[in-house]
Write a structure and sequence with these properties.
It is a single chain. With 206 residues, the protein is an alpha/beta fold. It has one domain: Ribonuclease Inhibitor (Leucine-rich repeat, LRR (right-handed beta-alpha superhelix), Alpha-Beta Horseshoe). It is built from one helix and 14 strands, in the order αββββββββββββββ. A four-stranded mixed β-sheet has the order 1-2-3-5, with no helix packed on it. Strands 4-6-8 form a three-stranded parallel β-sheet, with no helix packed on it. The radius of gyration is 19 Å and the shape is globular. The relative contact order is 0.09.
């Protein structure tokens, strides 16, 4: 029988404590190996510096508890990636600066950042994760650089403010549901380099 929340009472208390210690150890190791530092100013500017930003579990980004105060994100040069779930649910975020040192943007990094209106992705970025900008309702423009080779599933799903998108020449695949629900989309340029388009990629683009 599978053990879920409803079967929690089947665990002995000692086993629960053992599992808790393992989980705490994992989080501790994650904190030790996190190679970034951050500050949040009174005006809502979150400044991130360092090198390798870790991938976070949902709600585990160190600034998550203060997400409602974040208006602007400045990632300083030297940071190599934007971790998964890094800015999820930062609904007050309106702008972000991404340096050329960043090469990848993780899954759901900007999920439900409903205040984000535009973003420029530098040419250094080669991959954009799943659901990266999903439900960024206010996003009206996005610059996808030539360095990106694929657009992952649900990457821009629900971005109803987007009116046009230019897919660069190096992109070979567009994932399923990539632009699903982009109801304001009236123009799409797809280059000859694209060899596959996933199911429902442009569903509900009325």
């Amino acid at each position: 029988m599978a053990l879920g929340v409803c079967h929690e009472q089947l665990f002995p208390k000692t086993m629960k404590r053992y599992i808790l210690l393992i989980v705490l150890s994992i989080f501790s190791l994650n904190a030790i190996h996190a190679e970034i530092t951050w500050t949040l100013s009174d005006d809502g500017t979150l400044t991130i510096s360092g090198t390798d930003m870790p991938d976070y579990n949902y709600g585990a980004a160190p600034w998550y508890s203060q997400r409602e105060k974040i208006k602007k994100v400045v990632i300083e040069n030297g940071v190599t990636n934007i971790g998964s779930y890094a800015f999820r649910n930062c609904s007050g975020l309106t702008s972000i600066t991404i340096p050329n040192s960043v090469t990848s943007i993780g899954n759901s990094a900007f999920f439900v950042c409903t205040g984000l209106t535009s973003i420029t992705i530098p040419n250094s970025v080669t991959s954009i994760g799943m659901s990266t900008f999903q439900y960024c309702f206010s996003l009206t423009s996005i610059n996808i650089p030539n360095s990106v080779t694929n657009i992952s599933a649900c990457a821009f799903s629900g971005c109803r403010g987007l009116t046009s998108i230019n897919i660069p020449n190096n992109v070979t695949s567009i994932g399923e549901d990539a632009f699903n629900g982009c109801s304001g989309l009236i123009s799409v340029t797809i280059p000859n380099s694209v060899t596959s388009i996933g199911i429902l990629a442009f569903e509900n683009c009325i």
